[in-house]
Batch of 4 targets.
Target 1
Amino acid sequence: MENRDVGAGPLRGAGGWLITDDKIGMVVQCRGVADALGLNYAHKLVTPRGFSRLLSPWVRPARSERLGEIGSTFAPPWPDIIIATGRLSIPYVRALSHLAGPDTFTVVLQDPKTGLRTADVIWVPEHDRLRGANVVATLTAPHSFSPARLSQLRHAVPVEIARLPSPRVALLLGGRSGACKFTVADLRRFVGAMRSFVTLDASFLITPSRRTPAALLQAIDGATWSRPRILWSGEGENPYPNFLAHADILVVTADSVNMTGEACATGRPVYVFQPAGISAKLIRFHDALRRYGATRTLPDHLTSLATWSYSPLDSASQIASEIGRRWLRQQSVRHANAN
């Protein structure tokens, strides 16, 4: 297990395994819940190949994985709780729930596509249609930016950020995905909105993601160069946590559920740039956040900077609280049956 400050979560000190592939968005969600629970956990990275990869989540792990055998990645002693996400992780959760038995509580984040019996608890975002007795739904995805972490970050403003005049606008840039397309017209609209921020004397905290196309980053670079700013090049320590903590206003592209949720953890105004080509599921997600009062659609042109407030969204703590309640209830039932 990793040596961690386990905090004050409802299962603090319990042992956990996180099972994901190498997608950072998956890892962030699992760690957010594990940290909120207070687990002492180890991260188990899975990299199935061939048919095991192609047919996940419906197949068993390959025999070469040697699940349950001493010396393998997945061997006793079994953890108190397993948290997994992503289709490649599901075969492992299903197999380990049989090997470890009822002493190990299982949690899957996102719809596993293999039914409600896949895990003791399944979390989905509210814009997902899956529902059931063991399903927990929240507005945003879990992440590691808890109120306590953001408060700690805000206690010390990095010098390079402190030098920037207010209002400081954080640009959290995503990119094309299966659920969200960026056209040339979308790019022009986004750049036009950024130029209006320039005329309102904003400074900028700009960070791309791995999916941000070069054309988008270059266009934003050109639109904001005349104002004080920090534009992260991808080298050195990622300033993203401090960008979240110290921005007065945040702008996020609609493709990223994770970045939007993290922005909404700040309690600061969040503008969402919504390209024309966006999936129905993402539309439901962003509609819900607007109704909640956390976000507004980014206009093509701003003549003033609006401000609004809302209760910061802390989905990881909500999910952890529900997992803790159900885990304790299960332990009580098992104890009663044993007596």
Note: The mean pLDDT is 92.
Target 2
Amino acid sequence: MTVRITKFVDEFAQLAAWTGEPEEQVRAEPDYHSEERDHWLAWDGDRVIGALHPWVSPDGRHRLYYDACRADAYVPLADAVEGECLATVNVADAEMLGALTGAGFVEQRRENLYEIPIRRVAAAVPPDIEIVTADRTDLEPLMLLDCALRADIPGSQGWEPDPVWFREETYDSPFFNPQSYRVALHGGEYVGLARIWEALPGQERRRLGAVGVLPSQRRRGLARALLAQALSALVGAPGADIVKAEVDATNLPSHHLLTSFGGLINGATVELRRPALVRP
């Protein structure tokens, strides 16, 4: 039977029946009520068999986030998005990986998945650096630092400043913990950060979103000091005692940093790319 694709309107009951989540929980998800986000459903008759939540990131690319999908739903859902697409797939998910690569998605890069124990680690702060919690920062310089650091992260080049998005995803986010989001200042300049997000719904582990330092301040132990303070803030906090992280497989300095904190690799993901579709 041909899989049918429709744009999500208000099929909360059908989506909840497919995902197994309570309907009230699905209805409470803010993204379903945003005029800036499209959501797509795959159907077999009158039954949902997959869902896709594309997001246009500040670099202009469509990033594909799938709910649970039947094998034959991955590609038709992706075809609903015309622009250039990126999809991240766990290397252990042979079904999804095979479906997308068979439809023209090409591997762009790989990331190793890490588990880092939450514990206190001694790390000296350079004497001319002050490290503050993120609730003591201003939006614009923190946003510009974020963009500058992303320029060195594979897969994030071209990230453009977006104050509205940045506020929503940082200060106003329910997963923002200013104590585990540390920012380094050199005089009045923002020069580095380490941020650990609170666990997403349905997950027990927090996530290391980023740790990075501007080129002028590297090789001084600053990244280590930032990460040490972010992790120390979580010692004894409720929740799992492990933080997860993803690092590009070619990024040896980050690998050495995380393993120095006791981080261990426990898997990998592949980022797949598909160019924009050309409709007949």
Note: Residues 6 and 86 are 21 Å apart (CA to CA).
Target 3
Amino acid sequence: MDFLTKPNIAVMGYLCLDLYPDLSENRAWKWEPGMLREVGSCAGLPGGAVGNTGLALHRLGIPVRLAARIGDDLFGRTLTECFHRALPGPAIHLKTGADSSTGYSIVLNPPGQDRMFLVHRGSNDALTAGDAAEDLLDGAALLHFGYPPLCRRFAENGGAELRELFRNAHRRGIVTSLDMSLPAPGSFSAALDWPEYLRRVLPETDLFLPSIDELTLMLKPTEKEPVLRLRQMADRLLGYGAAVVVIKLGKNGLYLKTTGGARRLKTLEPLLGGNTESWRDREYLAPCRSVRVAGTTGAGDAAIAGFLAGAVTGASAAEAARLAVGTGADSVTRTDSVSGIRPLADVRRRLEQGWEKNPLEFASGTISLL
């Protein structure tokens, strides 16, 4: 079976060129106005949901197709060259606009400190549902979209653009998946009514995979105890219409809760086949696996790739969650987001051999640990 006819995952959404200045020798820095510091060399790699999750899936061994917008500029040409080095030509669906610049991020990752980002959305604001060409979805088992807060057309109008994209996928029997990002303070997306947005888009979203920080900002949960807060937010999202909710917890791993409704879960049958019962009414916490951390940029996107790779290869909900934290752990062993990721079979093997878990920073309560 050739590339064009294999079941695959289509990844669409925010794409940028991530610029990584090497700050590894500068442990004593204080970030002050007017400072001048020497740094190491700067790497430029595909980033955002399309660059990180898309290439992570490829490294896991899952056929992917990628769709995004770039500008007719140096950064756009660099991204195109990077993708063509990694993927077969039919996988790449980049639309070039002459009137906008390519999105980019400057990733500041000082040793011993949390990373910081300087982000330019650029051509991502012009992305539309119409950019999902028919051949992008041909043979796809799943369509994953990432970062509506950084893609203006997909954030505005109550998510109408995203609903159109996902409805078209559902008409073709394709399962849908959604990742978020934090709205930047002062940006257009910071002022949007995110609970109303989620009410509108989650009925068309089968798998919803946001981070704890994003959900806390968007939903403003009232529960203080960590497990009760996770359950409160997940139940709210399932009530809005999602079938599966995965909440990324950073160094605490991830939390998974799925619908108990057999009718809602039927939407996943094209992906899961007869395996849907192992996804029904499940709740798990999957702690991070123990590794030496070099950098955390893109770790959440890598975890999503592991989860989706598990789902598309017949895993149960529990196994998909374990594959997510395993892939995320591999990701952080390198300063970039994808070069540490190994084939899916290797991740499975290490998990089966008893990969050590990091301790949770809160009590798990009655939730099963994976």
Note: Residues 1-5 have pLDDT under 50 and may be disordered.
Target 4
Amino acid sequence: MTQSATLADGLRSTALARAWRDRLAIVGLCIALFVAMVVSLSLGSMPIPVSRVVAVLLDAIGIASDDITRIERGTVLMVRLPRVLLGALVGSGLAISGATMQGLVRNGLADPGLIGVSSGAALGAASAIIAFGAELSALGLWAVPIAGTLGAGGCTYLVYRLGTRGGTTDPATLLLAGIAINALSFGIVGILIDVADDSQLRTLMGWTLGAVSGATWSTVITCAIALAIGLPLALRLSAPLNALILGHREAALLGVDVSATARLVIITSAILVGVGTSFAGVIGFVGLVIPHLVRLGFGPEHKTLLPASAVSGALLVVLADLTARLAIAPRELPLGVLTSLLGAPFFLWLLRRREY
């Protein structure tokens, strides 16, 4: 066997071992997410033993248990489970959006909350509530998510265009454009808050702080549909995003349609962040922190980075929501405030190290 053949076999063996290691790590993250969700279902103002939570879940899928009380069933299935699932879905969407945006612009500071996606979604959703008012319920559950998605997509496209010149995206310009669009969007949201009535005001204020406490099975199903659309779209971007690591011009020379990739990233981010923000409000820094941490553990290969980020984002938001519920019980910390307290130091650390 020649030296080149031996080297090729060694590289294949290394790649295969790494692939199996990554799969096992993702399975481990899934197990950790499941455990975190069960613990979150167990803890709260009325603690329920984990064994009872499992019994309620088994009963819900047809494995009956005679000694389950009505209070336990209602607390787990109608109050806590929708909240936990919504947090997991929103966290997944934010992390996927952050990973794809960072890959597109080759900038570790790209985050749905920093470059206008989340603020655009909040602006669209807030505009729908104020514009339709009492008629909003007649428009159905989809009215607010559609408005949030359109707002997220519009702001993302505007920021991307402002930060791109001659086919090249400048990270500093992109970040500054995102800051400006964020300020403009939240300024308009502030005006909407000023003209809102009492019921609208409570909803809008909840959005600005972020929370999944208002979760229902309808909102969970809507976010699940958004994730079912957005995740496959994101996975289709794995190869183009890997090529973009080399640069936009180099990726174009390799046959990547950079403009089409950018449009698909914007559509994906708009769907995932727009729908999630419409129901959970602005939850910052998840899309910044998670892709960075996952990239440190799994490397820059997007075929692995994207699903690992999805599971890790869900795990972070589920744990953050549990902490928000228990930290100052019986009151709750706003979820968006807690993620900002966690994410802002990480953002400053990135600036300090200049690893973007």
Note: Residues 3-42 form the longest helix (40 residues).
